[in-house]
Design a protein that fits this description.
By secondary structure, the protein is mainly alpha-helical. The chain has one domain. The protein contains 15 helices and no strands.
Length: about 400
């Protein structure tokens, strides 16, 4: 059982405990979330398909990238909590996280530098250093988180989550189910309150290409990029895991959870921009994460557990890290100045997807997986007692 028991004020009746080394449904779902981010980036400013079909795709996937990133943040909190190893010290937690994210980050950072240099793009010292050390999401200047390999801004948030995790987990483990629900309610309210406060109090120069020019980057940054605000989603994922592990959360079917997630996407696509990109997505996606984990624990049917989808899920972090460069420069070199037919544009879009997948496979096979095998675990020691029945799963080892 990961973690430690909650106080006796919580009265779980039938706790769900992991019975398998991995949660394959969550791994498979990771690729679908990464695909949402890809769909957003290929239908927004770097649009591959033009005309009315392109407009329709842009409308359909306008919120997809935001939803996908929220899924990653919720999943990270859930799985790290689910798989927490008793008495594991903070340095070990941090080492495993850094070993997972930094090799892929460094490779794609260097690739971005070469591509930018080849295109005679402007480098700034602040932008380069902030992106290299993954602190770009802390800086409310539009050119900082949107330079180099721009998608790595989310790693800046994840790094903050990982630093905080060893301190947050003991606090949540001491809370009763009732108090966990109370904290979850407060955090849920904050996902609505933060964009409201930002829209009323944060100033800045409006961006003409966002929300019809009604919002500044500073407003968007305070809701979407700022790591402490994004930590709301991470902690909601942690709370969901604690409620499941203590038996305080009822079992949720995958179908109703999927309906909630899809309905939430439609809702978030219909509300004012700041509310749609905020952490409200966590409220609709957390039930799906819970339902998928429960399906794996109970070994019930799950459409996310297929071999191909799980394999793609294992590649999802590498795919996420390379896809932005493929989309940005593929669009710049092949699409932006060309009057392409619909068929040609669709073919290039498919080629971009396949190229990103091929590069992801290479990055995973030659960089990510070897680094994790080599550096994530300490030297083997003779076990002091019986081996655990479960090999804990960490969020990053699942492809996160």
């Amino acid at each position: 059982m990961p973690g430690s028991p909650v106080p006796s004020t919580a009265t779980p009746s039938a706790p769900d405990r992991p019975r398998a080394a991995r949660l394959p449904s969550l791994t498979g779902m990771r690729f679908l979330a990464a695909l949402l981010v890809f769909a957003f980036h290929t239908t927004f400013q770097t649009r591959f398909i033009g005309g009315d079909p392109g407009d329709a795709l842009s409308d359909c996937f306008a919120n997809a990238g935001f939803y996908g990133v929220t899924f990653f943040f919720v999943l990270s909190g859930f799985v790290l909590t689910w798989s927490a190893r008793p008495a594991e010290g903070a340095p070990r937690v941090w080492r495993r996280r850094l070993v997972k994210i930094f090799p892929n980050h460094l490779v794609t950072f260097v690739a971005a530098a070469f591509l930018m240099a080849a295109g005679s793009e402007v480098f700034t010292t602040k932008g380069v250093l902030a992106n290299l050390f993954l602190v770009q999401a802390w800086i409310p200047e539009i050119q900082v988180p949107n330079t180099m390999n721009a998608v790595s801004w989310s790693l800046s948030c994840e790094l903050f989550f990982y630093l905080a995790f060893p301190f947050l987990l003991p606090v949540l483990e001491r809370l009763s189910a009732r108090r966990l629900w109370t904290v979850a309610g407060v955090l849920a309210a904050l996902t609505v309150l933060v964009p409201a406060v930002s829209s009323w109090t944060v100033a800045g120069t409006p961006l003409p290409f966002i929300a019809d020019g009604s919002l500044s980057f500073e407003q968007i940054w305070s809701v979407y990029f700022f790591p402490p605000v994004r930590a709301i989603e991470f902690v909601l994922g942690m709370i969901a895991a604690r409620l499941v592990l203590t038996g305080a959360l009822p079992r949720i079917g995958l179908l109703p959870a999927a309906v909630i997630a899809v309905g939430g996407y439609v809702l978030n696509s219909s509300v004012p921009y700041l509310y749609g990109v905020a952490g409200t997505g966590a409220l609709w996606l957390a039930p799906l994460v819970v339902a998928a984990a429960q399906a794996d624990v109970r070994e019930t049917a799950s459409p996310f557990r297929g071999r191909v989808l799980v394999r793609l899920g294992e590649l999802s972090f590498a795919f996420y890290m390379v896809h932005g460069l493929v989309v940005t420069y593929g669009h710049k070199w092949l699409v932006a100045d060309e009057n392409l037919s619909g068929a040609a544009a669709a073919a290039l879009l498919l080629a971009a997807l396949l190229t990103a997948l091929a590069l992801a496979l290479a990055l995973y096979s030659w960089v990510e997986a070897p680094a994790v095998r080599r550096f994530s675990a300490p030297r083997a020691k003779k076990p002091a007692g019986p081996a655990p029945a479960v090999v804990p799963l960490t969020a990053l080892e699942a492809g996160e």
